[in-house]
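Bumping my old thread because nobody answered last time. Still need a sequence for this structure:
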């Protein structure tokens, strides 16, 4: 049995440096994207140019869908509109009900679907619970650059290691 904390691909990169060709080689056709921390900083409303470019290039290859725990429909809807993507806010990750509804809505097999996120205890756990691939990325700071030091992720990795 696979641990629900296991990351399929720990990229150690920001989302905009993830190789679309590598994702295709993995058989991925659909990407579920976390928003806060993954696409932009939680305290920012500006999507970095590098992220926008990666999203628009990825749309040519994959079905993309935003899935966020953020309770602000206004915030997530604004980001989704700017990126021209479907979305769910208030997803309650790592609970799997809303994620399973999204997977059913997009009609892709779980083996061809992945979630990209910056948190083990939300994004990675829900991905594993829904039997899809999981991709961990570096959280973005306010400038849209990857954070050099992410205490939350260090703690999550430590706890994950300890409870294996």
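Sorry it took so long. Here it is:
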């Amino acid at each position: 049995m696979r641990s629900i904390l296991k990351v399929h691909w720990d990229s150690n990169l920001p989302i905009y440096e993830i190789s679309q060709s590598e994702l295709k080689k993995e058989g991925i056709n659909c990407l579920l994207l976390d928003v806060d921390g993954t696409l932009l900083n939680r305290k920012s409303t500006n999507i970095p140019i590098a992220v926008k470019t990666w999203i628009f290039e990825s749309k040519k290859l994959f079905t993309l869908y935003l899935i966020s725990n953020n309770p602000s429909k206004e915030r997530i809807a604004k980001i989704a509109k700017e990126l021209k993507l479907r979305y769910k806010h208030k997803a309650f990750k790592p609970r799997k009900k809303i994620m399973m509804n999204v997977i059913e809505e997009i009609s892709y097999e779980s083996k061809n679907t992945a979630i990209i996120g910056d948190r083990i205890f939300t994004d990675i756990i829900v991905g594993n619970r829904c039997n899809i691939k999981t991709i961990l990325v570096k959280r973005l700071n306010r400038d849209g650059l990857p954070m050099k030091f992410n205490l939350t992720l260090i703690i999550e990795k430590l706890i994950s290691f300890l409870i294996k």
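The two ends are 12 Å apart (CA to CA). Let me know if any region looks off to you.
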